[in-house]
Each structure stands twice: as C-alpha cells, then as structure tokens.
Design goal:
heterodimer; A: mainly alpha; Four Helix Bundle (Hemerythrin (Met), subunit A); globular; B: Helix Hairpins; 3 helices
Chain lengths: 194, 102
C-alpha cells in the first residue's frame, strides 16, 4: 500500500470516528467502572492472596475495557498481555512459592491500620476537592484519535519514522535497559548462592 | 444519561488510587501490598490515557506504556526481594520485616 493512500484511509477513519457517536457508552462505562472498583475493594480485603490476585485480574481487564472506550486499543492490548498475562502469572507463582497457609490464618491488617485509613481518607478528600473545584478544566480539548491507526502512530513515536528517530526512541532504549537490569536483579536475588 | 467525559475517568482512577493506598498502608501481607501498588499504577495509567483522549494526542498513551514497563520491572524485582526474604526469615508480614529497625 503506498503512503498517500494510507494517510487518506486514516483521515477517512478519523472523520468517521469524529462524526459518529459511540453506541451505549454510558452503560458500558458505568458497568466497567463499577467492576473495576468492586474488584479493587476485593483485592485489598480478601484473606487468601490467590483470591486477591484473581480480583486484581478482573480489575485489570475492566481497566483494559476503559482504555478501549478511550480510543486506546494498543494500550488496552498491552494491559491485557503484560499485566493480566505476565505480571499476574508472576504474582501467582510467587504466591505458590511462599507458603501462605500461616499468613492467611493470622491478623490481616497491621496494628496502625486506623492511621493508614485516616491518611487515605485525607487523600480522597484532596482528590474530591480537586475534581469538584477543577471540573471546568477537564473538558475535551481535541478530537478523538483514530482507533485504526493507533498502533501505527505509537510505533512511529517509539521507533521513529522514515529513518528519523521518534520522539520517544531514546526513552524506549532506556526502558529496555531498565528491563535488563530488572531481569538481572530478579535472577540474582532469587538465587540460593550467589 | 449524560455523556462520559474525562472527569468520569478521573473519578474512577481516583477511587482505584485511594484503594491502592489503603491496601499499602493497612495490609500486612507483602504480596497484597505489591498488588496494591499495581492498583495505584493502574489508576495513574487510566488518568494518563484519559488525558490523552482529552487533549487528542498520543503522549499520554506513550507514558502509559512506559509505566507498564516500569510496573513489570518493579514487580519482578519486588517479588525477587520477597522470595529472598522468605527464604531467610520464613515470613511475609511487613511488620515482622524489621531487620533495619534500630
């Protein structure tokens, strides 16, 4: 496909996205948001860590659904593959390795939990005041991005296009270095004898 | 039903963030504390993607991807520390992890 034809296709898709209202958006949003928050509550209240992990997977999947509603299909895919598929498997393996039978029988909350809860309530009051006072600031300022070329645009920003470096190419290389360091750290720390 | 704006997503993200903070501050189990940190990072990601939609550009989504990379690195190293600690001390409760406490 030649580049000119491709960009014409993209602009046509953008026009279609901008002109057509999404179907049943409020209902999807409210059910996904309720699912995310309810299973978020389950994550921090369950006694058994495996139940917490499963609730966290539900939260991650519903947040991925919210990304889809925000016209970010690539981030939604990364969320499902990396978070729900990679990080949560890591968590479940560690739950299996560390024996949690004793931990699930004794006290679940630390002794100063009222202080922590109070601090979280203060934080929530701060968020509520920001959201109430700054309501007018959070209106849409731009057209929704094209969903069909989302992955291509992200790739252009990360890897660069037409032989030039993209805006985030250097950050991308640094991120791969970070992952290398994390792999080495995890391997060395879990070795019995170094 | 009103239209869903960026503000709605910010409310959901704030709720998830506060839940994560409650989990970090009150639970004893280190594994669940690490899961609460993942919850916090997800709230931040949701905010970034909502702002990306609000401004109509991609920078928020790119930041969200970098934060996912960071979360993966953090989970790997954190769980590695946890396994090393469990091997030495046979516990995963934070209030029993006080080797550096004088």
């Amino acid at each position: 496909m030649n580049p000119g034809m491709h960009s014409a296709l993209n602009s046509a898709v953008t026009a279609a996205n901008g002109g057509m209202a999404p179907v049943a958006t409020p209902w999807f949003f409210y059910s996904l948001a309720a699912l995310a928050v309810i299973s978020g509550v389950l994550v921090i209240t369950r006694r058994n860590a495996v139940h917490s992990a499963l609730a966290l997977i539900v939260t991650l999947l519903s947040v991925a659904g919210l990304y889809l509603m925000l016209y970010a299909p690539f981030v939604a895919g990364v969320q499902i593959i990396v978070y729900a598929g990679g990080i949560m498997v890591l968590f479940l393996f560690v739950i299996m390795l560390v024996n949690l039978d004793r931990a699930s029988k004794d006290r679940q909350f630390n002794r100063i939990w009222p202080v922590g809860l109070a601090a979280a309530c203060v934080l929530m009051a701060l968020f509520v005041s920001v959201i109430v006072k700054g309501k007018a600031l959070f209106t849409d300022r731009g057209m929704p991005l094209s969903e069909s070329s989302n992955t291509q645009q992200i790739a252009n920003a990360l890897y660069g296009e037409a032989g030039r470096m993209g805006q985030y190419t250097f950050a991308f290389e640094i991120a791969s270095l970070l992952l290398l360091v994390a792999i080495l750290g995890a391997v060395i720390m879990t070795k019995k004898k170094i | 039903m009103t239209e869903i704006t960026a503000l709605h997503y910010l409310v959901v993200a704030a709720a998830l963030f506060v839940l994560g903070v409650i989990g970090v501050l009150t639970r004893r189990n280190v594994v669940i504390i690490l899961m609460s940190i993942e919850l916090i990072l997800n709230a931040v990601n949701l905010n970034l993607v909502a702002f990306s939609r609000m401004w109509g550009n991609l920078h928020g989504q790119l930041f969200a991807i970098f934060i996912v990379v960071d979360a993966a690195a953090e989970a790997a190293v954190g769980l590695g520390i946890l396994i090393a600690f469990f091997r030495n001390k046979e516990t995963i409760n934070v209030d029993e992890i006080d080797l550096l406490k004088w």
